[in-house]
From TrEMBL:
Organism from which the protein derives: Silvania hatchlandensis
Keyword Nucleotide-binding: yes
Matching InterPro entries: AAA+_ATPase, ABC_transporter-like_ATP-bd, ABC_transporter-like_CS, ABC_transpr_LolD-like, MacB-like_ATP-bd, P-loop_NTPase
SMART domains assigned to the protein according to its UniProt record, in alphabetical order: AAA (SM00382)
Keyword presence, tRNA-binding: no
Family of the protein in this entry: Belongs to the ABC transporter superfamily. Macrolide exporter (TC 3.A.1.122) family.
UniProt keywords, alphabetically: ATP-binding, Nucleotide-binding, Transport
Phylogenetic placement of the source organism: Bacteria, Pseudomonadati, Pseudomonadota, Gammaproteobacteria, Enterobacterales
Protein name: ABC transporter ATP-binding protein
Domain of life: Bacteria
GO cellular component: plasma membrane; transmembrane transporter complex
Residue ranges of domain ABC transporter in the record: 11-234
GO terms, molecular function: ATP binding; ATP hydrolysis activity; transmembrane transporter activity
Length: 235
């Protein structure tokens, strides 16, 4: 018998508004955003510069709060959670990738993956060592693990950042313009890697981007314009 129960989305946004500023002087960046992102999707979030992509990523990952509306992340209503519970949810189930890599310059590639994993509190030293080596290997950087970020190319630094984002096996990876600081060929290689991880592991990816390559290859493209959702390839 076929079940009528619809699988719960990984992320559910309902009536999201975001205003910055105070009562007299404020700007509405997001206006009535409704969006469901299913488990395993590879979603490209597009829109002009300043349209609110980073703002939306911050809201759906519980880093920032909406002015109005509900966010349900992995079946938890974020509006109800205390800051420490939000931080715990993020550290267990979310991975983050940034445009400028955000690696610790004094640590080598291995330690950039290893230390956040140990500090995360869910892995002992032995398990964290194994996971870090495995993840660096899976992004093709096992041989360069002793190098510090300054001794790595931009693409290699982003691979370290991807290994760090995946080391705790998050259910969702949130990436803010992950190829934005890379040349076209390096960006394509990083995109290949992210798509491959998505296909192999079923990890959900939500990626803000200006890249036409990324938009062309994403499973779903959503565009924000003038504060609202202007386009959704799933509709
Ligand atoms: N903390 C803040 N306080 C006030 N305004 C903000 C704040 N953060 C973002 N904004 C404004 O909100 C708007 C959306 O910014 P956001 O960074 O989300 O856009 P974006 O689509 O990610 O842009 P880009 O593609 O250039 O990275 C911009 O006008 C920005 O100036």
């Amino acid at each position: 018998m076929q079940s009528n129960i619809k699988a719960l989305p990984a992320i559910y946004l309902n009536g999201i508004y975001k205003r910055y500023g105070n009562n007299e002087n404020n700007v509405e960046v997001l206006s009535n955003i409704n969006l469901e992102i299913a488990n395993g999707e590879f979603l490209a979030l597009c829109g002009p510069s300043g349209s609110g992509k980073s703002t939306l990523l911050n809201i759906l990952s519980g880093i920032d709060k909406p002015s109005l509306g509900y966010v349900v992340l992995l079946n938890k209503l974020l509006n109800d959670l205390a800051e420490k519970d939000l931080a715990s949810l993020r550290s267990k189930h979310l991975g983050f990738i940034f445009q400028f890599f955000n690696l610790m310059p004094v640590l080598n590639a291995f330690d950039n993956v290893f230390y956040p994993l140990v500090l995360n509190g869910h892995f002992d030293t032995k398990a964290a060592t194994e996971r870090s080596l495995h993840c660096l290997d899976s992004v093709g950087l096992a041989d360069l693990r002793d190098r510090k970020p300054g001794q790595l190319s931009g693409g290699q630094q982003q691979r370290v950042a991807i290994a760090r984002a995946l080391a705790h096996e998050p259910q969702i990876v949130v990436a803010d313009e992950p190829t934005g600081n890379l040349d076209l060929a390096t960006g394509d290689a990083i995109l290949d890697l992210l798509l491959n991880i998505n296909q192999q592991t079923g990890t959900t990816f939500v990626i803000s981007t200006h890249s036409t390559q990324l938009k062309a290859r994403a499973g779903r493209v959503v565009e924000i314009r003038d504060g609202g959702l202007a386009y959704d390839s799933a509709k």
